[in-house]
Amino acid sequence: MTLNDLLMAANGLIPTCYVTMAALLLMLFWWRQPRPVFLLAISLILFNGVLGWREYGLLLVQNHSNQDLLLWFTLGLDLITAGLAVGGMMLWRCYGDRIASFRLPPPQDQLTIANQELASVKTRLESLLAHTAELSEANQQLVKAIEERKQAEAELTQRNQELEQYAHQRLTDLRQANLFLQSQVIERQQAESELRQSQQLLQLVMDNIPQLIFWKDHNSVYLGCNQSFAVAAGVSSPQDIVGKTDYDLPWKPQETEWFRQCDRRVMESDRAELGIVEPILQADGQQAWMETNKVPLHDSAGNVVGVLGTAEDITHRVQAELTLKQLNEELERRVEERTTELRQAIAQLEHEIKERREAEAALRQSEKRFQKLTASAPGLIYQFQLNPDGSYTFPYLSSGCHDIYEIEPVAAQCDPSLLIESVHEDDRQVFFDSVAQSAATLQTWEWQGRIITASGQLKWVQAVSRPELQAGGVILWDGLLIDISDRKRAEEALRQSEMRLRHQAEQLEQTLQQLRRTQAQLIQSEKMSSLGQLVAGVAHEINNPVNFIHGNLAPASEYVQDLMQLLKAYQRHYPEPTPALQRQIETIDLEFLLSDLPKLLESMQTGTERIRNIVQSLRTFSRLDEAELKDVDLHLSLDSTLMILQNRLKAKPKRPAIEIVKRYGQLSSVECYAGQLNQVFMHILNNAIDALETGYQQVEEINQSNALAITTLAKPTITITTQANDETVTIQVGDNGIGMSEEIQQRLFDPFFTTKPVGKGTGMGLAISYQIVVEKHGGQLQCISAPGKGATFILTIPVNQAANRFQVN
After folding, report:
1. For residues 281 and 780, what is the distance between their CA atoms, to the nearest angstrom?
2. Non-local CB neighbours of 448 within 8 Å, separated by 6+ positions
3. In terms of domains, do 44 and 103 share one?
4. Maximum alpha-carbon separation in the chain
5. Over the stretch 693-730, which tens digit does the pLDDT of each residue have?
6. pLDDT in tens, 360-374
7. Could you say which of 257, 388, 532, 594 has the lowest number of CB atoms within 10 Å?
8. Pairwise CA distance, residues 715 & 666, whole Å
9. Percent helix, strand and coil across the chain, each rounded to 5?
10. Full domain range(s) for residue 360
11. Residue 74 placed within a domain
């Protein structure tokens, strides 16, 4: 039990004792003749008891902020009254008998009493004539007693009058003090009610501001925050953060030390620090970047008592700045200018806040905090009220109304349509729809759009507020509206810059691809040119001795036939050779030699013919006149390419020989670059052979991994089909390999795209083939394939290249 509880109990018990004591005194002593002092004491006791009961009831019913002072005052009054009553009774106890003995009778009985006393005296005088001396002495005593009684009555009358005047004056003072205390209590209650309403409005506004707001004392202990900061700090409500420090929140240790250093700097220098960009670890574990503003808080004497801070999440902006740092210098300049304006505005608002310190102490402090918070948050803080009849008002508008709309807040409150009609006509329907949806669902209202200011300036604004259903169906939105024109211009500049960069990147990518393609073509052309020169030289060098051998084989065969005829004639004329000659005949196996020598000459003839055909194919494939258009037999070019690839078509340990099926149509000579088309045939046929070998390799891997599931493939076959009409020639090269997916077909002719292992392909073969067919010959090259269905390359070129005559790149 506290001291206040004891005082409350005493203030209720003491009046009860007063009333009870007064009643007992009246019952015990009313049968005696009442005396003025006694009646005055009982009246004071009874009055003080009734007054005490009233004050005690007032204390119970009302919650006074000066309750302690009123308790002590009431208790003091009770003690003074009790002292006066006890003093009066003590005075009566000490001098009551004396006063009662000298009480004068009523005026009308005094004569009778005097006559009786005179008669008695006369009788006594007559009886005591002989005792003159005794009578004289008794007379003197009687005179003395009468004088003392008169003197005592006079003193008692004077004291009674003084006591009545003091009691009346004291009662008047108590009534005036009671009235004064009642007025003070009512004023205190009104002030506390206004203070509570102001604090509730302040907290509501802060909770609707998207920025993080907090304030601390001089020891960096949190005194409060808004809901946004509470969520970021990982606490359930702003009340839970009171009494905590940065060490109690989920910041990193280095972040905590940095925050406290900033607090000390601001409080020690008594200067605001604005635009502090700092990283912070949020309650959900995500790293964020905050732009923090900190200003010192002062008491009524101007002493620094704490720090006020606002923070805004700028993570996306920091990431954009890190990515496009070189392109954002103009944006940074504008942001710096805006920051300077905000600092000036905050300084001006602080000056205006200091000029309002003459108001009532508690309300003035609340208004100061509210003004500082609204000043720290850029934009317009507002209250929007929608009535059931569809009308609307703005109960509150901050000074930001003039900065954004160029309209004074008072004018906008008098005519709310000034703000609504300033919404751009293209955004007005979206604005009304969003307000109606928020009113229907009581969800947070968020809107971003354009407004036209009083001077005709176009601005982008962003508004956010939370609706609350009031009594009578009224809906009240408390929120914040900020000017985002600079951000929109910056975003547009960033978009333009990004588009320019993307366009430049695409151009660079195309240029790089073109350079790579050109480089590969140059390398391929140079390689084919060098290969053609090498092959032509080798063919020429081989062709001469081959022709020499081929030309001498015919006479050598005739000479051998002649020698064999001669030897046979010799055997007929000399059937019995000498023993030495017989041994020589057996040693060389003459019969086998005579039978095998014609076969040997015939195989040499066949070999020289094959060498001549291979040399002719090499010369055909490596035509040195590919820079000029020539009329070419494409069948001859295809056969030459197949001749060169003959070694790859033969049977391998892991696959059988590849069968070539020729379905040649009737083709006339085609005007083309023969050497380049030979490269196309070589690339397409090589890819067909690779696809067939890959299929057999995959089947072998499957069989090795699962011995029970033996998989076989059809005989590897490449089918070459040619056909022509009056304008074009079509060549189809198909295989029965593994085929390819749609995704691979879409990228088949892209430069450097290959599905072959590293080191087995450059990815340029089909790209170069596509360029040769489409760009150099004005034709078409396409692929038709499906997984497991093989692939068919269809090559179509015009018969006459008159429309496509251009220099080989």
Report:
1. 60
2. 460, 461, 462, 463, 484
3. yes
4. 243
5. 888 888 777 777 665 545 567 789 999 999 998 889 99
6. 666 666 666 666 666
7. 388
8. 28
9. 60, 15, 20
10. 209-373
11. yes
